[in-house]
Q: What sequence folds into this?
């Protein structure tokens, strides 16, 4: 007979977080990631995008979303949805006409979300960023069409 009652799970104690995991990323890493994301936006805005660069933009949007869900940010949900819609439209254009360009009216949306993510990278504890990246990998491996909830016409979730 098993010594466990009622099928209760045995949980292992969590390893304590290290000092490095409790602090924000180092500034060199923050600058490198920020530069990569901003260069992707410039390339996509100027018609020099490609599938990889658009994926980088959406990766940034989703990481910012997951971090905001953890309490680091207050951008309207509609802004995240607008970014998704803009990328979907750009991908349709790329498929139809082989033009990899982000619509001009979508650029301010991405600029504000990149600014949010820059602030997140500079202030959020590293373990939260790693957790957001894990959530992104789970989303990408799943079947959901978006981690961002749909918004009503007033821009509320």
A:
């Amino acid at each position: 007979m098993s010594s466990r009652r009622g099928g209760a799970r045995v949980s292992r104690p969590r390893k304590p977080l290290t000092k490095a995991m409790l602090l924000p990323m180092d500034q060199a890493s923050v600058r490198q990631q920020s530069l990569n994301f901003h260069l992707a936006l410039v390339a996509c805005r100027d018609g020099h995008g490609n599938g990889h660069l658009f994926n980088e933009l959406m990766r940034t949007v989703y990481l910012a979303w997951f971090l905001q869900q953890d309490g680091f940010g207050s951008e309207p949900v509609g802004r995240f949805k607008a970014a998704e819609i803009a990328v979907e439209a750009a991908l349709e254009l790329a498929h139809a006409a082989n033009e990899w360009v982000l619509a001009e009216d979508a650029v301010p949306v991405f600029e504000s979300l990149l600014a949010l993510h820059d602030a997140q990278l500079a202030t959020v504890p590293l373990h939260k960023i790693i957790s957001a990246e894990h959530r992104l990998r789970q989303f990408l491996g799943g079947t959901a069409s978006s981690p961002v909830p749909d918004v009503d016409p007033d821009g509320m979730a």
Notes: The chain has a mean pLDDT of 91. Residues 23-141 form one domain. The two ends are 50 Å apart (CA to CA).
